[in-house]
Every structure is written in structure tokens, then in C-alpha cells.
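Worked problem 6 (solution included).
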Amino acid sequence: MARAAPRYICQACGAVSGKWAGRCESCGEWNTIAEEPAEGPRNAKAGRSLQFVPVAGEAEPPPRIATGIAELDRVLGGGFVPASAVLVGGDPGIGKSTLLLQAAAALGRVGKRVLYVSGEEAVEQMRLRARRLGVADAAIGLAASINLRDIAASLEAARDASLVVIDSIQTMWLDSIDSAPGTVTQVRAAAFELIRLAKTGRFALVLVGHVTKDGAIAGPRVLEHMVDAVLYFEGDRGHQFRILRAVKNRFGATDEIGVFEMTGTGLAEVANPSALFLAERRGNIAGSAVFAGLEGSRPVLVEVQALLAPNAGGSARRAVVGWDGSRLAMLLAVLEARGGLRLSGHDVYLNVAGGLRVTEPAADLAVAAALASAFAGQPASPGMVYFGEVGLSGEIRQVPQAEARLKEAAKLGFDRAALPRRVARGNRRAEAPEGLEVQEIGHIADLVSAFAAESAPESDDGTR
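Solution. The predicted structure is:
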């Protein structure tokens, strides 16, 4: 039998080519293409006929295995689902293993059988972490191995397991594949085998995944399609906050977040993240505005900070942390063309305080308020929150769930809210809670003029 021709696979994106090249044509990365053996021919077997059922009928909601960690259960949609696979990604040292060990301990304490397999740490290292977290008394089965055949044999024998954690999928090795652990072929084959075991064994499977320098989970993109849920654990190690975000969930809502605080004894839940993000906020400072945002179904208030520095010459600098840089460029153009702010001669620095990354367009109005406040040198009202999308013509567009945002602002003691002129479809307007004054803004020029009117009076030559 002729030997199968080798394949060349990009270790960054999984693209397959027939010859080696220094640069991948699919993703553009350099020196990521490696030779991997092609799979041999397989004997075709006759399949069984499928039994099709009508779409009409009752569908029961999937059962849940609640961990008791409310923030984790919120992101999962109520807890782990038996016979499902969850992929958890995050930067090294961000707290993935800590969170999963705490979740495993919570299930072990209520009588569930939990197995934790680590390919990166020895058993004694895991025991040390468990003692530091105060969960050494929980009934958790620990093992250290990278051999997938040994792991598969152990999981097939453990029919009563409720949760299995594999830390991490990039360290798993299948001896039938002639490539190193972490390669595209090994990761794909190992994940497929583990997911098959989870479906047949009816246990919930959690795969820990490393991330690349771009923040994406390392390995083939097909890995995210194979699992039922994909969670990202985010945060800056300079901050104590950690954000668990769902980007895919077949059994719950996506874009949900859970907020944790890293402490000396592990991760602590944050029941009111808005209060935590605003804890160090100081009022009466120009360039600061509070955004009433929405993360999944949870309203969250965060502070947006802007700083303008005169640029004597050359290209003005734009630096952004926690927001989309291209959206800032668009908003700066709108403020200059529609609002009359001359920002081209200033370096612009924008920061979302607390380490949270904001992605929704509703933050446009809060960012514009922070920039207008910094330009005029006039602080925004300390009791004001902002939300609304800014269009290219300068109009302020409505955003969803305005009432939930207003209720969160009122709960934290804010008494004023700036929002689009019409914040709900049809003729119905959002109802503001008692004690919260609503200020409707229809155009970006109205926002700019409000800060200009409160700033220093003009001199005789018309300059500020």
C-alpha cells in the first residue's frame, strides 16, 4: 500500500495545504505551518437508517447541575448540563484553574462525583492550590496525565461522574497520531474523543484552553464549533476584577457575564458589579462620564474616562483601553464635523475604568460626554448617567432595555440620566424610576452645547 502523502497544517488557524510555506495564506501568520501525517484510508461500513421525528412536540428544558457559584451558574444558563462540553479560555494566570477547582469543590460537597485531570500540574501542586483555596476537604478525584488512552479508560470506568475537568486540551496526547501535543491534529482528535465520552457517559465536560496573543483560543477554530458552550475568562492582572463571558451557549443566553474578585483565598463573587466598578470614582473631574451599559441581561454601570493633551505637531495620538479604537475614531469625526469640537490637534486617551471591555454601541453617548467634558474643562454632573448610540449625522439613536439601565442607575443613587429622545419603539417611552430625572438628547450638538454653556465665559476676541 502506498504511503499517504503528508499534509501541512497551519498551527494558528488550521488551514491545510499540500506543501510547506513560510507564511500561511489563510491567516497571514509566519512560521506556523508544520508537517503532519495524513490520515490513512478507512474501510467504509454500511450505516443504519435514521429515524426522523416531527418538529412539533414537547421539549423539556435540559437538566442542570448547579454549582452554587451564582456568577458561574448565570453565565452557564443555570449550571452545567449533563452530556455537554464547555470550553473555557483565558490568559495564563488569569484564574481559570482556580475557578474550576472551586466549582468542582462546590459540587463535590453536595455529593456529586467530580474528576479533575491536569496535564500541566502534578497532583501535589493541585493539592497545594486546594489547601490555599480552602477546598481540600471536598471530594474531588485528582489525576495528572496527558495520555488520552489512559484518561479515556478511566472515564469509561467512572460511569457515575457528574463533572470532568481537563486542564488543558492543548496538553492532551493521542499516541495513534504522529504529532506533538498542542498541534492542530492532536487538539482536534483529543477534543473529539473526550466529547464522545461525555455524550456516552452523560457527564458534563469542561475543557480548559490556552489563548493566543490575539486573545483567541489556541488550536483549530473547529474546536469552538465542537463544544456546546465557549466561555472566556478576562481581566487585567493589574486589577482584582475578573470577567467570565459567554460567547457561545447552546443551553442559555450568550453575552452573559459573571464578575469575580481575585483575593488571597481564591475568586469571590461580585453580586453588584456596578458598585465595584464605581467604587473609586471621584466626582467633579473633567473628562469623566458614567455609562449605563448592559452585559447580556445584566445592567452594569462603569466609568468612562477621557484625557485630551495638546499636540504641538505631527500626527495626533489615539489610545484606547476597554473600547473599540475604530469606533472612537468615528466618534471623534462626528464630534468635530457635527458638534464643532476641534479635536484634531489633541492627543486623545480613553479608558473604561475597572478592566471591563465595553462592546455595545450604547456607550457612544457616554464616550462623547467624557470627550466634551474634557474639551470644555467642565465636569459632568456627578449624579448623571449616559447611554445612547451616535449616528454619523450626529443623531442620538435609541438602544434596547432602557428601563433596566435606568433602574440600575437609580439603585446606585444617580438622580439624572441623559438618553436618546425616543428610547422605545412606538409611542411608549421608557418609564424612569421615582427620583430619577430624564434628560432627552436628540443630537450630538445638544450634548456639546450643554458643556460649553457651563464652561468658562468667552473673552472679547471670541476665544475660550
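Discussion: The longest strand covers residues 298-310.
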